[in-house]
Design brief:
The chain is an alpha/beta fold and 151 residues long. It contains five helices and five strands; from the N terminus they run E-H-H-E-H-E-H-E-E-H. It binds ligand CA2.
Length: 151
């Protein structure tokens, strides 16, 4: 069974515990459960990870780029958190590892502060899901699976 990486960046471990008016009340453990259920429907094994550290995220992007190259994974759904707006390193990692990525944001970043409108990730993403709440994880998995089938 092919795998899919669901990757979460800084502070997403706090999901559901604070700022419910922006991010809702669903916890990251609940999101993992939703992703595993959707992965089961799509015939994909979900690898679910979160880190607050940029270098760790870079290493995981490299790891899954190699998995895709070996034909064992279809790519990643990635919520880079605030690194979205700052990280040339993650941009370069995704490009360098040729990792198919769906960039995902729970909130509609374009309806928020100006500094959230720019993404270093979008130019190297295959697709983008923004503003659907945690349902976006499911939509992003469906989209990535569809793109992988199209080849
Ligand atoms: O909307 C999203 O998914 C974001 O990627 C979330 C990031 C934010 O910096 C991006 O601009 C948009 C923040 C993730 C931190 O999540 C928290 C959850 C609960 C409490 C505090 C932070």
């Amino acid at each position: 069974m092919a795998s899919v990486l669901v990757l979460n960046g800084p502070n997403l471990n706090l999901l559901g515990t604070r700022k419910p008016e922006v991010y809702g009340r669903t916890t990251l453990a609940d999101v993992e459960e939703m992703c595993r259920e959707e992965g089961g429907k799509l015939g994909l094994e979900v690898e679910f990870r979160q880190s607050n550290h940029e270098g760790q995220l870079v290493d995981w992007v490299h790891e899954f780029g190699a998995e895709v190259k070996a034909g064992r994974s279809i790519g990643a759904v990635f919520n880079p958190g605030a690194f979205t707006h700052t990280s040339a390193a993650l941009h370069d990692a995704i490009e360098g590892a040729s990792l198919p990525v769906i960039e995902l944001h729970i909130s509609n970043v374009h309806a928020r502060e100006e500094w959230r409108h720019h993404s270093f990730i979008s130019p190297v993403a295959r697709g983008i899901v923004v503003g659907f709440g945690v349902l976006g994880y499911v939509l992003a998995l469906q989209g990535l699976a569809q793109l992988a089938q199209e080849g």
